[in-house]
Structure formats: C-alpha cells, structure tokens
Specification:
- By secondary structure, the protein is α+β, with helices and mostly antiparallel strands.
- A hairpin with a 2-residue loop joins strand 3 and strand 4 (51-52).
- It has a domain at 25-62.
- It has one helix and four strands.
- A two-stranded antiparallel ribbon has the order 1-2. Strands 3-4 form a two-stranded antiparallel sheet.
Length: 62
C-alpha cells in the first residue's frame, strides 16, 4: 500500500497546487481583420492558410 513516510506541510502541498490557473486563449488576426485561434479556420470568413475551406453564412456571426 502507498503510505506516506512523513507529513506534507501545507506550504509544500499548496506549492504543488499553485499552477492550477486559467490561461486566456491566444488570438491572432485573420486576413479579414477578425480574431481567431491559431491553426484554426476563421469563424467569420472561413479561410485558413490563404485557402477558403468553409462557407460561412451571414447568420452564423449573429
């Protein structure tokens, strides 16, 4: 059985948990001027790497 040999102090325990935080997503500007996540199709124009991959309807933005 896994039994700890000694008590883990509160400071040591909390240091381990200190890196659990939310990170804002990285955003880049598309050719159309909208922001999108890197390596993803643009949600407003449907372009990725200079090519049009998806037809975006006018209602999709709303």
């Amino acid at each position: 059985m896994a039994v700890p040999k000694s008590k883990v102090s509160k400071a040591r325990r909390d240091k381990r948990r200190a890196n659990w935080k939310l990170v804002a997503p990285q955003l880049v500007r598309c050719e159309c001027g909208a922001y999108r996540m890197p390596h993803r199709i643009c949600p407003s124009c449907g372009v990725y790497n200079g090519r049009s991959y998806a037809k975006v309807e006018a209602n999709a933005a709303e």
